[in-house]
Design a protein that fits this description.
globular, four-stranded parallel β-sheet
């Protein structure tokens, strides 16, 4: 599948917009929160496979778009962020994954850390576009320069102030969020359906905070 556009999101992160051929449109239909598996060539031959979540909004008919954050020592992420340009053809599998809401009409509590915002953004935008519920996003980053989709989130909050609340947490100002902090940030929304994505330490403290709030495992 060819890349149609590369959008620089931050100093480390870029979004790659795909131009899926019409004959593959059915195979590449996707749901909010799903991911693509990309084949990344190795310098000496062969390849590795890596998964990247889609950030685009399927209910708006947007082309498949995934976001890559170049990580120190991460060969695949640096290859995708540094070598791929419009016209590059990527070898990939169709969308997959179960990190996707059964209904967009639910109330959503979304917790994202760093590039974990990617599938969360797809869920958030799809719920705003086609759902009826309220959405609270708690988004943790190292600093304000690391916030992927910062402008888009401001625009969405301004457009839907009655439905969308976005809380930014910056480690540079307050240190990494612990379970007690996340528990209090999430308390008003403990009855919502929770979706969590981010680095392992963020996932762990988020799960702990939700458990302490009594959020059942199925939510």
């Amino acid at each position: 599948v060819p890349v149609a556009q590369v959008i620089r999101e931050t100093g480390q992160a870029s979004s790659l917009v795909l131009a899926v051929p019409p004959g593959l449109a059915g195979a590449f239909a996707y749901r909010p929160g799903q991911f693509l598996t990309i084949r990344v060539p190795l310098p000496g031959g062969g390849s590795v496979a890596r998964c990247y979540s889609l950030c685009s909004c399927p209910v708006a008919g947007e082309p498949l778009t995934f976001t890559v954050k170049a990580m120190t020592g991460g060969y695949a992420s640096n290859w995708l962020a540094g070598q791929v340009t419009p016209g590059t053809v990527l070898d990939l599998l169709p969308p997959a994954g179960t990190f996707t809401p059964p209904s967009l009409d639910a109330d959503f509590l979304l917790l994202a850390g760093g590039s974990g915002i990617t599938p969360v953004m797809s869920i958030l935008r799809s719920a705003l576009a086609a759902g009826t519920g309220r959405i609270d996003l708690v988004y943790a980053n190292a600093d304000d320069r690391s916030v992927i989709f910062a402008t888009r989130l401001r625009e969405l909050t301004a457009a839907e102030p009655e439905r969308l609340v976005v809380v930014h947490w910056l480690d540079a100002l307050s240190g990494p969020p612990g379970p007690a902090v996340l528990r209090e940030l999430c308390r008003p929304y403990a009855g919502f359906d929770a979706y969590v994505c981010g680095p392992d330490p963020f996932m762990a403290v988020s799960r702990q905070a939700l458990r302490e709030l009594g959020v059942p495992a199925q939510r």
